[in-house]
Specification:
It is built from six helices and no strands. By secondary structure, the chain is mainly α. The protein folds into two domains: 72 residues, 434 Repressor (Amino-terminal Domain); 30 residues, no CATH class. The radius of gyration is 15 Å and the shape is globular. It starts with a helix and ends with a helix.
Length: 105
Amino acid sequence: MSIEFGKKINQLRTERGMTQATLSEALGVTRALIHAYESGKRNPSYEKLMEIALLFGVSMDWLFGNTDNQSGTPMIDISALNNPQINIVRELVSELKRLNKIANL
């Protein structure tokens, strides 16, 4: 991710009339961390990135700069899961991908 990512977060936040403080509260992080995201000094974790995409209703591909299509919906909403549960989901997805590769051989 880059400064481009930070600009997108800033754009989304300001379009919705949010301050850095209100966004930080919604994501459960500090305002300083939001500032660091927006300035390109820090990158969010994968979980926070998912939360940002869900919060603003945009695709992760758009946040990454892989598409110009802002509207996209993440495939699953993990915002209510805790870290151990998120890890279980990741492991399940990895295992399903592995099984699909074997089936397609």
